[in-house]
Write a sequence for this structure.
C-alpha cells in the first residue's frame, strides 16, 4: 500500500509504502517544492538507510542503520557530491572517522590506533598514536611547511621522552634554531627517520567503502 501526503495546494510532500502488517516497507520519498530531497529505506518497519539530497539532486548525506542505531559507513558531502566526511559505526558507536577539505585533501582521521590531522595543502599537522584508548607511541605537531614543532613518545599513557623545536632570536644572529629534549630519544629518532615518509600507510589502514 502506498500513501501520498500533499500540501493544501496539492503539491506532493511524501510517499509512504507499507507492507501487509501496516509497517513501513521499502523506499519512502520526501519532497520539497516538487523536488526529491530525501529517501528512507525500511524493512518490516525498521529503518535501514537515509539519503538526503540538495536542490540539485546531489548527495548531502547517506546514513545506515540497524536496530535503531547507526551501523556501517556514514557519508556526508559538500555541494557537487564532494565528500566531506566518512565515518564507521558499530551499534551506534563510532569506530572510525575521516574528514576532508573541499579540495579533496584529507583534513582529519581517527580510529582506534590514533589521530591524524592535516593542513589544507596536504601536509601533516598533528599525529597522536593510541592503543586501547590511551596514548601509546608518538604524538607530534608540525608546521604547515612540514617542519616538526614538537614530538613526544608515550608508553601506556606515560610520557617517556620528548623533543621540541624552538627559535631563539637575537639582533646579531636573527633566528637561531634550538632543540629541547627530555628522556631517551631512540623512539623519536626512529620516527623521524622511518615513519614520517609513510605515516598514513604505517599507522592507519582504510577499511574502504
Amino acid at each position: 500500500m502506498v500513501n501520498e501526503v500533499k500540501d493544501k495546494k496539492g503539491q506532493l510532500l511524501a510517499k509512504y509504502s507499507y507492507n501487509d502488517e501496516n509497517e513501513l516497507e521499502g523506499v519512502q520519498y520526501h519532497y520539497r517544492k516538487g523536488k526529491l530531497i530525501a529517501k528512507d529505506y525500511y524493512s518490516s518497519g525498521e529503518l535501514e538507510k537515509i539519503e538526503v539530497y540538495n536542490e540539485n539532486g546531489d548527495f548531502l548525506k547517506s546514513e545506515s542503520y540497524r536496530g535503531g542505531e547507526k551501523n556501517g559507513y556514514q557519508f556526508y558531502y559538500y555541494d557537487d557530491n564532494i565528500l566531506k566526511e566518512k565515518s564507521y559505526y558499530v551499534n551506534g558507536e563510532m569506530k572510525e572517522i575521516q574528514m576532508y577539505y573541499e579540495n579533496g585533501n584529507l583534513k582529519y582521521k581517527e580510529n582506534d590506533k590514533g589521530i591524524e590531522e592535516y593542513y589544507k595543502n596536504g601536509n601533516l599537522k598533528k599525529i597522536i598514536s593510541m592503543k586501547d584508548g590511551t596514548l601509546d607511541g608518538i604524538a607530534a605537531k608540525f608546521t604547515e611547511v612540514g617542519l616538526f614543532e614538537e614530538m613526544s613518545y608515550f608508553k601506556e599513557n606515560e610520557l617517556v621522552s620528548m623533543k621540541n623545536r624552538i627559535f631563539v632570536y637575537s639582533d646579531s644572529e636573527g633566528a637561531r634554531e634550538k632543540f629541547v629534549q627530555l628522556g631517551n630519544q631512540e623512539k623519536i629518532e626512529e620516527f623521524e627517520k622511518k615513519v614520517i615518509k609513510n605515516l598514513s600507510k604505517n599507522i592507519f589502514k582504510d577499511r574502504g567503502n
Summary: Helices lie at 186-195, 199-203. The chain has two helices and 17 strands.
